[in-house]
Amino acid sequence: MRLITLVLATLLLLIQLPLWLGKGGWLRVGELENQVLLAQRKTVELKARNAKLDSEVHDLTNGTGAVEERARFELGMIKKNEIFIQILDANGQPKVSATPLPPPKPDAKTTP
Questions:
Q1: How is residue 34 annotated by DSSP?
Q2: For the chain, what is the mean pLDDT?
Q3: C-alpha angle with apex 60: 105 to 42, nearest 5 degrees?
Q4: What is the pLDDT of residue 111?
Q5: What is the spatial distance between Cα 31 and Cα 38, in angstroms, rounded to a whole number?
Q6: All residues at 6 or more sequence positions from 51 whose CB lies less than 8 Å from its CB, including other chains
Q7: Does the reported pTM lie above 0.85?
Q8: 3-class state of residue 88 by DSSP
Q9: What separation in angstroms does the CA of 19 have from each of 3, 13, 25, 29, 31?
């Protein structure tokens, strides 16, 4: 009787082994769940980036403010009838501005 119990327990263990450690076992399910969570986080980040780029494209195509801001900061352009003053240091190099650039304006689409 004891031998039959031992054989049945061994068979039960052998049947359960693929369930826990096999190709479709619980350990693999946990790994796949972690991969899904990472993919979801990446998707959220990419959606936020796409929304930001979309709003920037919208600003550049519909408004003149964004184009003007880019022209001023990236290209150093000035408006008509404006006076440009550049302060040089002792070596004749342009002085670094003490005024930080303004923060980007919040977009109505991305604010909750």
A1: H
A2: 80
A3: 65
A4: 47
A5: 11
A6: 109, 110
A7: no
A8: strand
A9: 25, 10, 5, 11, 15
One-character DSSP codes across 63-81: -SHHHHHHHHHHH----TT
Write out pLDDT tens, residues 62-112. 877 777 777 777 777 777 888 877 778 888 777 666 555 556 666 555 444
* Cα separation, 17 vs 21, whole angstroms: 6
Asked whether the CA dihedral 45, 49, 50, 51 is positive or negative, the reply is positive
Q: Measured between alpha carbons, how far is 18 from 64 in angstroms, rounded to an integer?
A: 65
pLDDT of residue 50: 96
Cα 50 to Cα 108: distance, rounded to the nearest angstrom: 15
**Among 37, 59, 50, 41, which residue's Cα sits nearest to residue 108?**
59
